């Protein structure tokens, strides 16, 4: 039944092959990280964002840090219980900066 709706929504006729998956590019990966971290960091107050930013900064300042896309090598104290890729942590820093700028400019006021 779900297949019927999928074909109907996409305008596919029965028997047509599914669309090919788009390749996983660096841009798609980083965009996914930014979307993920935005959803998470929106729930943090300024103090939490500052604390996480400082801990992430310590990780990315290390000489062994690499901006790898997918391999989860880096743990950040008090962030969560899982390792993250270098690109994911850099995306988190970008998101925190953007949210802080948003707050400073009072862009969330009516």
Strand content: under 5%
Q: Indicate the low-confidence ranges by residue numbers.
A: none
What is the average per-residue confidence, as pLDDT, rounded to a whole number?
Answer: 87
Distance between the termini: 45 Å
Helices and strands, in order, run as HHHH
Count of extended strands = 0
Largest sheet: none
Question: Helix tally?
Answer: 4
* Overall 3D shape: elongated
Structural class computed from helices and strand pairing: mainly alpha
Q: What percent of the residues sit in helical stretches (DSSP H or I)?
A: 40-55%
How large is the radius of gyration?
A: 19 Å
Q: Could you list some keywords that capture this structure?
A:
4 helices, 110 residues, elongated, 54% helix, mainly alpha
Please give a structural write-up:
- The protein is mainly α.
- The chain is built from 4 helices and no strands.
- The chain has helices at residues 2-10, 26-41, 46-60, 86-104.
- Helix 3 packs antiparallel against helix 4 (86-104).
- The radius of gyration is 19 Å and the shape is elongated.
- The model has no long low-confidence stretch (mean pLDDT 87).
